Amino acid sequence: MRLPIGEGLSSKTNEMGAMFRSEEMALCQMFIQPEAAYTSVSELGETGAVQFRDLNAEVNAFQRKFVSEVRRCDEMERKLRYVEAEVRKDNVKIPDVFEEAARAPNPREIIDLEAHLEKTESEIMELSQNAVNLKSNYLELTELKHVLERTQSFFFEQEGAVNMDATRNNLIIDDHATAQARGRLGFVAGVIQRERVPGFERMLWRISRGNVFLRQVELEKPLEDPSTGNEIYKTVFTAFFQGEQLKNRIKKVCAGYHASLYPCPSAADEREEMGKGVSTRLEDLKMVLNQTQDHRSRVLSTVAKELPRWRIMVKKMKAIYHTLNLFNMDVTKKCLIGECWVPVLDLPIVQKALSDGSAAVGSTIPSFLNVIKTSEAPPTFNRTNKFTRGFQNLIDAYGIASYREANPALYTIITFPFLFGIMFGDLGHGIIMALFGFWMVSGEQKLGAKKSNNEIWNIFFGGRYIILLMGLFSMYTGFVYNDVFSKSMNIFGSSWSITYNTSTIMSNKDLILNPGSSQLNEDVYPIGLDPVWQLASNKIIFLNSYKMKLSIIFGVVHMIFGVCMSVVNYNFFNKRPSIFLEFLPQIIFLVLLFAYMVFMMFMKWVQYSAKTDFQPHTPGCAPSVLIMFINMMLFKRTEPLHGCDEFMFSFQGTLQRTFVFIALICIPWMLLGKPIYIILNKKKHAGASNHNGDIVQQTEGTVDTSEAGKASENNGHEDEPISEVFIHQSIHTIEYVLSTISHTASYLRLWALSLAHAQLSEVLWNMVLSMGLKQDSYKGAIMLYLVFWAWSLFTLAILVMMEGLSAFLHTLRLHWVEFMSKFYEGLGHVFQPFSFKMILDGDDEVD
Fold it and tell me: Residue 337 pairs with which residues in a beta bridge?
């Protein structure tokens, strides 16, 4: 069943709605004329708004329609890789080019591009081969020159030993003599690689049984390998022997060890004459080599300017033909049919791309795009920008949201950096992190253009907005904690009244300030912690209680918000019975037990004061909220202190028992409510089916597949056996009841990491930086200068990086497990559009 674009689709979808859940998707069928298929798909690749489906899944990859075009693209890519390798080998700079500057070539340009690449490859191969040949000749002449020069000393020593030129001629003859006289020595001279000399020498000794006299000398400067350009170290050798048979053996050994043999006259004047000729030829060959290299550099420089554009064009062209292989040909062979997922908001863009593709080739028959109904689950597409992309990646790392499911990334933008800031609360460290994030954000265009292979840097840069917000929230919580590098700021003046004189304070280490005393300052500290706590010996005890209660408060609020988010999903997917059968008992259970505990914390803070004369409301009578909660769950009582009350208000005991009984009732409500509803619903449908069986049979074939799929999705487990429904609901109930306790305790990591961070910061200050601050003389200034750098290094490495990473991971766990598990399924599959930008970026990462 086909529908025109926009018909049957929700008109309520807009840009604002896409922030709360994934975008509405439409399965479309497009009909394209073959002559306009290439340009139309090219336009769709530029928009990046379409995910194609493979209509030829059963067809072999080598039997598809455009397989020959794909092979042509592979051949062009091979040529481009060869050309690029030659360019990089000569250290020619390849300029950067923006992807928008090179569009996919039209069919006419493809032939020209292919011919140009063929010509370029042939020219570079010819230049390379000529250069290799010239370098080989140059290497041979260079080696011959070294042989002539180095063997001069060998013959000079021989001349000195014989002391007569005639005797030398009688004893030593060159290798090219036409006859071997009795008793005369022959010789061969050549060059061998230095690492092969020991084996070469042993082999000569073995074949001759020590009758070969080998002289060698190493070349100080390395020679260049003509093929690879690598440096090779060689040794000049001369082997003296006697007999034709030994001569043949030596030549075979030289061939086996890849030694190069060169003619070397035995007469000094002949050697000198040959050396002059070799030097002349080397000079001429060097001039030719320089001219050849200059010509090669000019050719490669010209090619390097076009290389990025060619590479992008070939990649786009190959992607187009790969996509066209996903299309199917109709029975008339005159139309290509494709199916694709398209965001509803992008349907006009896709239609315009098809129109532009047809107009580019002058096709008179327009392309059609029809929306079709389907029961298949669409892909999930969350439209993001550079700010929200990092937060969306955090959620997608846990699991891709089911189609149209509420998107936690929107709320994570605030809750993630805030919970991080609670654990990382230090104004000084927060400033460092915020400055680092601001530097990456302010220079994102320049930094993003530098494509780095450092994976750690890429992760930091991808989460630059997350780092910036984490730093800002850490600054806020650090200001509330009044903690700057483990020190406090006295901005508003302490609200504590000190009634002791100076001598009493200096002589008594542990003095107790009276919180009930009133002098000039009767107000509490305006915001955050009073700076006097920095000097208190019981600071840790106070901060433990303060931060632990804050952790429980924020944790319970966060979990309640997660449970409430399930109502959004139930309402959107038309699962309204689940609101009463699942959400209501869950929220009642959570509120009556744990939200009540949070309420008692605030009650305790408000009701008990040091400035009251009523004994039950003095600080000494304040009950422990934790003990009170345990007694509430176990129906126990604790005897209060003398003059104190057990409860904070008169009917608290009755209220607590009522809350516990209602919470216990919620457990069978969650356990049995949904299965009983499904049983009753099945009986109702079965009765209606038996009563109207004939009508159902007549109308069964006209049921819309999409409506059937929606009904199946809405009913959830109705198609499962009732035993599996009971098992699933039992697991879900046990998991939720136990998780309310474990998840509430899990939020205590906010307190633990905050306390650990503050203590590490204080230890680092007292053990490192204080070494310079305690010195009174000029030595203290020098020591402080040196110690400051050590303190800064430890602060960045340990407190900012390591502690920051630890707090980040704990915050991630709180969102994935404690928050998202209350409403998020994450069973979808991601929308992967056909986009040239994504293809090119992916190839760059691989490269």
Answer: 31, 328
